């Protein structure tokens, strides 16, 4: 099944990663050239990808926010959990994995994936159902970070057990009286950071699988953060602790 990726950064990352099947690249006629575009075209030509000039109305029909180009590709190439664990083991590092419990908004998913890539996770686990998947909208929201990450679809409870066996502590992000502040949580070792659904948070079974819960202390009048912001902050704290 083919899909259209639009936007310069997402397309650049698809071409740079070389993980997807790529069919062809459409570029707007009379597009303004710059260094990034030149590099993007060079990558496409090096991979023998057909480049076709088209009028902007054609691109508008694919995505009104196309930024002058659209890349036709195969579907997203998901990884598997053992490969993610293998990355950590190959680097001699304790596992650092993001697990998302039914995050359903593509923008939130894209933001979390972008943060995960930026802060050095070994991979991301998505549930098998009732969750946003890696669609072109998510690729765009992540600014192409999806193409640089190992993302797997897996039964979440089983993935948590497997990561525990690989030396990871499962830390659920939740604003509850039972949750501890980051200062009291060891984020330096092997961890699986679990972020729940935007509205309902962690499911009961997932919460019970967590070794501990962590909350982000709030000082302002707003009493909570959305899942993408909270998860991104927690990923940053973990990345700093691991240094």
Which descriptors apply to this entry?
Alpha/beta knot; 60s Ribosomal Protein L30, Chain: A; 4-stranded mixed β-sheet; 243 residues; 2 domains; alpha/beta; 6-stranded parallel β-sheet
How would you describe the overall organization of this protein?
The protein has 243 residues and is an alpha/beta fold. 37% of the residues lie in helices and 20% in strands. The protein is built from nine helices and ten strands. It has a six-stranded parallel β-sheet, sandwiched between helices. It has a four-stranded mixed β-sheet with strand order 1-4-2-3. The protein starts with a strand and ends with a helix. It folds into two domains: 2-74, Ribosomal protein L30/S12 (60s Ribosomal Protein L30, Chain: A); 81-242, 3-Layer(aba) Sandwich (Alpha/beta knot), CATH 3.40.1280.
Distance between the termini: 41 Å
Instruction: Give unreliable regions as ranges.
Output: none
Count the strands? Answer: 10
Reading the helices and strands in chain order gives EHEHEHEHEHEHEHEEHEH
Domain module tally: 2
Structural class: alpha/beta
The CATH superfamily of the largest domain appears as SPOUT methyltransferase, trefoil knot domain
Average residue-wise pLDDT: 95
CATH fold descriptor of the largest domain: Alpha/beta knot
Helix content class? 25-40%
Strand order of the largest sheet: 7-6-5-9-8-10
Query: Which geometry do the CA atoms define?
Result: elongated
How large a portion of the residues is in β-strands, by DSSP E? 15-25%
Radius of gyration: 19 Å
Strand count, sense and barrel status of the largest sheet are: 6 strands, parallel
Number of helices: 9
The CATH first-level class of the largest domain comes to: Alpha Beta
Q: Judging by the overall fold, what is the CATH architecture of the largest domain?
A: 3-Layer(aba) Sandwich
